[in-house]
Amino acid sequence: xxxxxxxxxxxxxxxxxxxxxxxxxxxxxxxxxxxxxxxxxxxxxxxxxxxxxxxxxxxxxxxxxxxxxxxxxxxxxxxxxxxxxxxxxxxxxxxxxxxxxxxxxxxxxxxxxxxxxxxxxxxxxxxxxxxxxxxxxxxxxxxxxxxxxxxxxxxxxxxxxxxxxxxxxxxxxxxxxxxxxxxxxxxxxxxxxxxxxxxxxxxxxxxxxxxxxxxxxxxxxxxxxxxxxxxxxxxxxxxxxxxxxxxxxxxxxxxxxxxxxxxxxxxxxxxxxxxxxxxxxxxxxxxxxxxxxxxxxxxxxxxxxxxxxxxxxxxxxxxxxxxxxxxxxxxxxxxxxxxxxxxxxxxxxxxxxxxxxxxxxxxxxxxxxxxxxxxxxxxxxxxxxxxxxxxxxxxxxxxxxxxxxxxxxxxxxxxxxxxxxxxxxxxxxxxxxxxxxxxxxxxxxxxxxxxxxx
Length: 454
Ligand code: UGA
Known about the structure:
six-stranded parallel sheet; Rossmann fold; elongated; 19 helices; alpha/beta; 14 strands; about 450 residues
């Protein structure tokens, strides 16, 4: 009989995890306290944009292998394994992680755990959280001694969530017993058979692996962005630099893409939570470098605004600016801590008339920044623009024909905040192209084959 699994929390992580477990042949029950979300998922509709997920979900809802509920009693009754996938956002009043949703989930689930089962945390948490949650579980679960807690961090990227979950680089499980390891090996049997590394650690290490991975990725991006600043001052080209250093096997080419920096619901809050935890533990110096990483990242946004001012002759007051992109990254409609929207809002506050276009994130952007103006296409956003700013690297924008904007814009200035457009193509069409850390003129454009590295 296949394992019966519950997935508590149906955001990007939870829905993707639930649908992929169903794909592996397990019986899955997804739970959320948001009844609207559950109704939508139960009808096979994904309430956010994630390529490939709607197909997977509707397929497994149709077979009955994937169901949804709002009842913790039903979840407790159903599951051999319970995954905790709720959000752990930044606290409103500090840098640390807000663990309220996780604590609420454990509190709500525990009284319904009457038979032997494994509770598995997947949310990103400060080290030591699992220990505390385990104590709560044994205090409140009727089957206390038979309920165990393990940690299994998730490394999926939004926009690539399904592929990352089905074929991750590695699976990490932090366990306290051989039984827990055995259960998790059974959950991941198909992936282990496929040769995906299965790394078994203690629980604290598993919690830290996730935080450390995100902190390292953030550091890589900020390192390259710091180099971009040096490039601008020296006339060097960060795209060629990225290509050249990325070819060193010890460095690697991925996640070295300089530009407007990182945003989203994960990297920014995770490095801050790590700083907060280091402070609490009295080892602030261990994470002090992350303040620089965060600072460099945030300064990309002000740099971009400064570039817009420069392009507009010292002020953006009364200027029309087209912003291409609102999502924090392409292939997602997530606008949490979106660098693009942050820049758009700052420009508006400085007196510019800003028009934003994003292929899928408009509704979320409108909710987050209702005072910005939104357009239905790149061309519409560009009408009368004194500068066009490319701030989220959707494929649609890479394909944009500069000649198609002739007679649409007021001036042919393109500011590429993602260093993802082809400078030669835009310059050939008569545009002034500016990237971040890229040369001002065409004569030093690289001949490298550097590509996207996310
Ligand atoms: C990130 C991690 O990559 C995942 O491994 C992790 O599971 C996830 O956080 C999480 O903690 O849940 P995600 O935030 O979805 O995933 O997106 P990324 O692809 O990592 O991009 C994050 C930001 O970094 C984006 O704003 C992107 O534009 C920026 N970025 C990425 C760069 O500026 N340069 C790069 O080279 C790569």
